[in-house]
From TrEMBL:
UniProt pathway annotation: Pyrimidine metabolism; UMP biosynthesis via de novo pathway; (S)-dihydroorotate from bicarbonate: step 3/3
Organism lineage string: Bacteria, Bacillati, Actinomycetota, Actinomycetes, Geodermatophilales
GO terms under cellular component: cytoplasm
Protein name: Dihydroorotase
GO molecular function: allantoinase activity; dihydroorotase activity; zinc ion binding
Signal peptide region: none
Reactions catalysed, as given in the entry: (S)-dihydroorotate + H2O = N-carbamoyl-L-aspartate + H(+)
Species per Swiss-Prot/TrEMBL record: Geodermatophilus dictyosporus
Record's cofactor remark: Binds 2 Zn(2+) ions per subunit.
Length: 428
């Protein structure tokens, strides 16, 4: 199987031809020609390494009405992803080797992206005792990222033990930083607006206090810590401080926290309800700066599909979470590239290279260069389109970007040399 991509701008550089053969990039050069190859015209398109998501909710097993491994994989491929980490808050919870291997196998069957299961830190996400971390790491799924996402590992002694365990496995604890005692009944960012709208507030301190505690624990233990979906300016400051002291901490920010603010809660439309909540414009600016200067390592979608009955209700009853896979790159183009904060190499670093390194994935996050695995995407940076939730590949419809015009269209995605997306459409 041979594909010749004509005239792609690798990381936004000069146009070049890319020859994909046997799952690898065989050659990069000018005017390559090969007989019998499938030819893809990439005139005007930017080539980037396939994106890697550290934080995807695929809902299988348990809520296949909201998403399956296959539908979520298709949404990921359409977004330019070649690997996604599937969060553990399924039903049953991914807290055993059996469940993570099941998810891993479903991903292989779908064959659209590499589905990398995340293992739960604690049994049933209950925060009481550690799950079988070693067995999940040794399983066919080769788990390296462990998270109780959806819940915080709130007990500091348990968090310390989790960090000690993952250190021995070359793993990382991905913490959903939320002090539960400070967010009882919380609905939106705490501030003047929550008071005016009559919605219970989720204070920035509930996130920042856990991050501060955890970076100290990670330093004490000498283990790797990853912070999920950071959402406040104060969190960026704590991370900057921790990194300056050599703590092995990494962090991610979601597309929605890079673009949207708490002002959207004025609509009382639960499509904008998410955990952690949308914050203020100052937070958005600090998150963009933190991502640009590398304090925040990665963009991760926190793609959180929800069935209509769980989302289209009163604000207080609705589940938190929003879709992200199909619009993550366009949001980053709008918020970081068009504002001059990141160039294409920077986008590749924050959406592919660093997330692959954090997840210890080999074969992803590699340069677009001869000899490397042919995991890559082609983007038309000039295209602009309004988001139509009905046209999404996800099984759910809870996109916060409905009707919003965003720049950048993923034209093609290749997983080990095989097209998963062509002409902006999923190949299967
Ligand atoms: N982000 C959310 O609002 N929801 C996530 C859980 C989580 O990421 O905490 C979900 O699983 O729906
Ligand atoms: Zn979370
Ligand atoms: Zn999540």
């Amino acid at each position: 199987m041979t594909t010749l991509i004509k005239g792609a701008r690798v990381l936004g550089g000069e146009p070049a031809d890319l020859l994909l053969e046997d799952g690898r990039i065989a050659a990069v050069g000018r005017r390559l020609s090969v007989t019998g190859a499938d030819v893809v015209d990439a005139d005007g398109l930017v080539a980037l390494p396939g994106l890697v998501d550290l934080h995807t909710h695929l809902r299988e097993p348990g809520r296949e009405d909201a998403e399956t491994v296959e539908t979520g994989s298709r949404a990921a491929a359409l977004g330019g992803y070649t690997a996604v980490h599937a969060m553990a808050n399924t039903d049953p919870v991914a807290d055993t080797a059996g469940v993570v291997e099941q998810v891993w196998r479903l991903g292989r069957q779908a064959g659209l992206v590499d589905v990398v299961p995340v293992g739960a830190v604690t049994v049933g996400l209950r925060g009481e005792r550690l799950a079988e971390l070693g067995a999940m790491a040794d399983s066919a799924a080769r788990v390296r990222v462990f998270s109780d996402d959806g819940h915080c590992v709130a007990d500091p002694a348990l968090m310390r033990r989790a960090l000690e365990y993952v250190k021995a496995l070359d793993g990382v604890v991905a913490q959903h930083a939320e002090e539960p005692r400070l967010t009882v009944g919380a609905q939106m960012n705490e501030g003047d607006r929550s008071a005016r709208l009559g919605l219970t507030g989720w204070p920035a301190a509930a996130e920042e206090a856990v991050i501060a505690r955890d970076v100290l624990l990670a330093q004490h233990v000498g283990a790797r810590l990853h912070v999920c979906h950071v959402s406040t300016a104060g969190s960026v400051e704590i991370l900057r401080w921790a990194k300056s002291r050599g703590v092995q901490v990494t962090a991610e920010v979601t597309p929605h926290h890079l673009l949207l603010t708490e002002a959207l809660a004025e609509s009382y439309d639960p499509v904008f309800k998410v955990n952690p909540p949308l914050r203020t414009d100052e937070d958005v600016q600090a998150l963009r700066q933190g991502l640009a200067d590398g304090t925040v390592d990665a963009v991760a979608t926190d793609h959180a599909p929800h069935a209509v009955e769980d989302k289209e209700s009163e604000w207080a009853q609705a589940r938190p979470g929003m879709l992200g896979l199909e619009q993550a790159l366009p949001v980053v183009v709008e918020a970081l590239v068009e504002t001059g904060l990141l160039d294409w190499a920077g986008v590749a670093d924050r959406m592919s290279v660093r997330p692959a390194a954090i997840g210890r994935l080999d074969g992803h996050g590699r340069p677009v260069a001869p000899g490397e695995p042919a995991n890559l995407l082609l983007l038309d940076p000039a295209a602009r389109a309004a988001v139509d939730p009905a046209a999404l590949a996800s099984r759910s419809r809870n996109s916060p970007y409905a009707g919003r015009e965003l720049p950048g269209r993923v034209v093609a995605t290749f997983l080990r040399g095989e097209a998963t997306v062509l002409d902006g459409k999923a190949v299967r």
